[in-house]
Amino acid sequence: MEKPLTSRIALVTGASRGIGYAAARALAKQGAHIVAVARTQGGLEELDDEIRKDGGSATLVPLDLTDFDGIARLGAALHERHGKLDILVGNAGTAGPSSPLGHIDLKPWNEVIAVNVTANFQLIRCMEPLLKKSDAGRAVFITSAAANKALAYRGPYSASKAALETLVRVWANETASTPIRVNLFSPGPIRTRMRAIVFPGEDPMTLETPEQVAEFIVPMCAPAWGETGKFYDYKTRTLQDFRAPE
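Given the sequence above, the corresponding structure tokens read:
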């Protein structure tokens, strides 16, 4: 029996571990060919091994997403090889420093903005033409409750996720009359390396796994998914509209 995502091309960033790794595997199990992007060659090769064991296929792209020209070259390569892109999962992110704003140097601030915001802007610019070539282009970006909680000492990360949310919502509005569907996904506290770095005292075994999260990302990447400009809150398992402050 043909799998639901057979012949669909899925680009996943931050695919060498955590939610990106789990999402790439889950999409591959449904038949998608995975274009796996990450800085870590070893992690990508491990992912490729697992995808092959599951009977799937992947193209490995070792790339630092702050190489914005590299993202453009990737878009050109995908156009040449596949002529389209069906699924974009913008998962890669960096936690940044945990310090008062006045104690943070410009360099780490710029690094967080580059990975969490500018790289996703460049992905949108370079992948939109390919998504438009798909009969049902789907994009999902991973956000965080930090975007609206404005937690003390988490300034760069919180600001970057707030910017990402606005960026993605603008893109959803711009593509609303096209077949492209663009949404945000907030996983909440999940058993990842980034979470362990930010909350070192937390027992990871009390948290849900990236694999559990991935099962909810996959439907948002399918042609049957019709919502756009929405926010999926994994913690409450609800798809939400954005509401302006009253």
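Residues 106-132 form the longest helix (27 residues). Try to locate this feature in the token string yourself.
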